[in-house]
């Protein structure tokens, strides 16, 4: 675990169509000192949010989303529009082909729901070190 | 559709080809297998096989070996034994080995060969449709279960937020940990694709990793875990016991220290038996076990009783507390 002083404050997009689960993820992130963008309940909403908030450091995406674009397709679209972004997939599906499809996009992590809070925060720390933001000195509340 | 016909006799192969083209249509791809090389090539290719018709006694193999080779490449490929050398005993052996049917080579039996092959193919198609449906159903159930567990955990977290009293909040967090531990066992079960037993070693390693990660102190973990697969009705209570023991240890053993050691041992015993031991280098047992407060201990006792396990609690070698759960064979 990390102490507050070496925590990085990241701006994280959260997408999940189950709003209570999205709120739960948001709560875990905010508790760890991160800033939540969203949550969005589907892919178009997520893309709109990204349009308005260009400074996003990572995204936590549910895979099964309503509409034509699922979380994996959304990840592809985000990269196409905005360039590389560290992605964490959170999935309730145990389907191995879904997992393979997700892993093929080289995400930061693939988390099985129910999400282990620490696995989520550890994955975000990797995003922070990738982005070189840990040295920024931002501390948690 | 592709059919393999393994027989040494070119006339018999030609006869079978004729009968099967009549039954399945002229466009059916029928591959004659007169020798091992042709068989190996047929199985190495990209094309799948939908039916095997094989003689029993060939110069280069027997029908059972051919079936085994075909099934190694196409596990679901149905097969019919078509032989002149057989008897009742061979017929029984063939059915036991996984041939769908057994047809004796004779002019009168040619019609039966066609029917046997048709039945074998449609049964295989039914089986595969059934399995596909079952897999879809399992995926759907799994998804719902995990999403709902996630919701439950989320709701518990929100509830804990709403509670001012620290002790009550801690109790809700304990509850959330118990549910997470059950969810993680469930995932292990699903991943193993074997609905009767679960890889308890992998589950335990993950559980300890998760619980220790939540601890802000520096906890050194030493795992001595052997391969143990447990039936589900044993794994569920034992997973909860493990969760309680590790949570309890992390809560009480290291008191005001900033570091500690946790040792976990998992060993199979005889057939179904298992030993689970959790030891620490902390303050050690402070009194009789019954004096240790908390619902956790009560749960451990109750669950141990359910699976007929013995629970021993005392001072370990390192001076700390040692829990030992022995599930008899």
Number of helices of chain B: 9
Largest sheet of chain B: 5 strands, parallel
Order of SSEs of chain A: EHEHEHEHEH
Mean pLDDT of chain B: 90
Main interface pair? A-B, 23 and 27 residues
Largest sheet of chain A: 5 strands, parallel
* Poorly predicted ranges of chain B: none
- How many DSSP helices of chain A? 5
Spatial strand arrangement across the major sheet of chain A: 2-1-3-4-5
Helix fraction bin of chain A: 40-55%
Helix and strand element order of chain B: EHEHEHEHEHHEHEEHEEHEE
Please describe the structure with a list of short key phrases separated by commas or semicolons.
heterodimer, A: 141 residues, 41% helix, globular, disordered N terminus, B: alpha/beta, 5-stranded parallel sheet, 5-stranded mixed sheet, 9 helices, 52% helix, 21% strand
Describe the structure in your own words.
The complex is a heterodimer of chains A (141) and B (329). Helices cover 41% and strands 18% of the residues of chain A. Chain A has 141 residues and is α/β, with parallel strands linked by helices. Chain A has a 5-stranded parallel β-sheet with strand order 2-1-3-4-5, with helices on both faces. Chain A is globular. In chain A, 43% of the residues are buried. Mean pLDDT of chain A is 86; it is low at 1-6 and 133-141. Chain B contains 9 helices and 12 strands. Chain B has a 5-stranded parallel β-sheet with strand order 2-1-3-4-5, with helices on both faces. In chain B, strands 7-9-10-12-11 form a 5-stranded mixed β-sheet, with helices on one face. A two-stranded antiparallel ribbon of chain B has the order 6-8. Chain B is elongated and about 90 Å long. The model of chain B has no long low-confidence stretch (mean pLDDT 90). The A-B interface holds A 1, 3, 18, 20-21, 23-24, 27-28, 64, 92-95, 112-119, 122 and B 139, 142-144, 146-147, 149-151, 153-155, 157-158, 161, 179-180, 183-184, 187, 190-191, 210, 213-216.
